[in-house]
Amino acid sequence: MARGRLCIALVTVGIALAGLSLGLRGADNKDKGGGLVGAETCATCHEDVAKAFNAGAHGQLMAARSKDVLNKACEGCHGPGSAHADNPSKANINRKPRPEACLSCHPQAQALMAANLPAHGRNNIACLDCHVPGHSPAPAQPLLSAEPAVLCAKCHGNVAAQFNLPYAHRKGDKPFACTSCHTVHGENRTGNLREYGYSGVCAECHIDKAGPYVFPHPPRAANGCMQCHQPHGSANPKMLTRTRIADLCLECHTGLPSFHTINQAKYHNCQTCHIAVHGSNHDPNLKDD
């Protein structure tokens, strides 16, 4: 009888130790994997979301890199999913990815924004305030939650309003995309422009005004096209900063010759004679193109 009890006790202890050993190995494996379960496990509940992500630009780029990258995509943004898989709850998963998740793949964006767009940081502008994660088709590219003109206007309303002025950079009633001239995250250029200097950006469309000229108009070297023009919109023709061209010219040309008198109508418009306002290859006084 005593021997039987001893055998039962030994078997019970053995089973307990075996169970403890398996449990420890399981815990060890979970720790090593960081609680990761993989995209296939996530897809068992979120099948439509997973399919849409895999078919979208984000998922396709990850798949092109490697299957392993795509397999870790869900948890790369939303955090380890083991606890959520065991007990689906909003409390044990990151429903909205934090900026750190995006920056783990896009580190250059953080460096550019920190150096060039400090106002975004001060106002706690996060990646998903402008971008969509890629679970469904994006309204605009690259994975933007709206067209750039609409998206940027949420914060830059004063600039957006300028596109409604009589003369503005728009096609029909639609403003030009902000990204036509500006970089999204900034590249340490004045105004976060895509090219160095205002003249560089403007010349992408206004090729005939680009030059270089044998006799350039000096103000362009000081502040580029914006020395005379408004960049987004103006109440004045040709998006000028002043209503009359003469008033604009007189901001710099204060010491005019004595024969330039306002008693004569031809001196009310400087372009009557100085037609090459952007620069000339023939005349230092800009009277000939």
Question: Care to describe what's here?
Answer:
- This protein is mainly α and 289 residues long.
- The chain has a domain of 122 residues.
- 41% of the residues lie in helices and 4% in strands.
- The chain has 15 helices and six strands.
- Strands 1-5 form a two-stranded antiparallel ribbon. Strands 2-3 form a two-stranded antiparallel sheet. It has a two-stranded antiparallel ribbon with strand order 4-6.
- β2 and β3 form a beta hairpin.
- The longest helix is centred in the N-terminal third of the chain and has 32 residues.
- The protein is elongated and about 90 Å long.
- The N terminus is likely disordered.
Observed structural traits:
single chain; 289 residues; mainly alpha; two-stranded antiparallel sheet; two-stranded antiparallel ribbon; 6 strands; 4% strand; disordered N terminus
Order of helices and strands: HHHHHHHHHHHHEEEHEHEHE
> Structural class, from secondary structure content?
mainly alpha
Structure summary, number of beta strands? 6
Helical segment count: 15
**Low confidence ranges:** 1-33
Helix content: 40-55%
Tell me the overall shape: elongated
Topology, pairings included?
Blueprint: H1 2-33, H2 39-43, H3 47-55, H4 57-65, H5 67-71, H6 73-78, H7 82-86, H8 99-103, H9 107-116, H10 118-122, H11 148-153, H12 157-162, E1 167-168, E2 170-171, E3 174-175, H13 198-202, E4 215-216, H14 219-223, E5 233-234, H15 245-249, E6 279-280
Antiparallel strand pairs: 1-5, 2-3, 4-6
What would a concise description of this structure say?
The chain has 15 helices and 6 strands.
